[in-house]
Task: inverse folding
């Protein structure tokens, strides 16, 4: 009997301390468009010593979310979130900080389109000339926002997309 009571108390303690649901853990990340975009940049940014935030990243994305990017050869490719994780794990983690430069949101009912220019930094306090732009699609369902897809392209000598975006009204 004493063992049963002790086991019950330990189980209750464990579940209250360690059994936090993802909904409780990341609820603030998905309550608004601004919150989910902030989380979107936060999960990819960090020092080489910070752990990857795969759980949080998966939570802000819808099941089957699509990532579309141009590679260094100008070739377009769609990826799943899981494929993105694999590519991150193939190389040692480096200091990487994506700092948002400008955001433009268009929302109609429960769907939204976010344009977001960013720069890539290896030190969060030092500006960089490596910049890109993301097109992020979201929807609102079950009381929260979800990222359904995003497309990113980096600025280059042939493509001044970030410069153009930053300078438009």
Result:
């Amino acid at each position: 009997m004493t063992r049963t009571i002790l086991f019950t108390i330990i189980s209750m303690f464990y579940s209250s301390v360690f059994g936090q649901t993802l909904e409780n853990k990341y609820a603030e990340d998905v309550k608004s468009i601004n919150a989910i975009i902030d989380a979107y940049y936060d999960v990819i940014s960090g020092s080489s010593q910070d752990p990857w935030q795969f759980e949080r990243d998966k939570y802000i994305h819808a099941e089957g979310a699509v990532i579309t990017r141009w590679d260094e050869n100008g070739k377009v490719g769609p990826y799943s979130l899981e494929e993105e994780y694999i590519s991150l794990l193939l190389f040692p983690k480096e200091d990487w900080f994506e700092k948002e430069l400008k955001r433009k949101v268009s929302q109609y009912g429960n769907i939204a389109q976010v344009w977001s220019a960013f720069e890539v930094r290896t030190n969060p306090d030092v500006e960089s000339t490596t910049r890109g732009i993301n097109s992020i699609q979201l929807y609102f369902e079950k009381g929260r926002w979800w990222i359904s897809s995003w497309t990113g392209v980096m600025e280059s000598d042939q493509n001044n997309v970030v410069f153009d975006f930053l300078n438009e009204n």
Remarks:
- Residues 2-18 form the longest helix (17 residues).
- Confidence is low (pLDDT under 50) at residues 4-17.
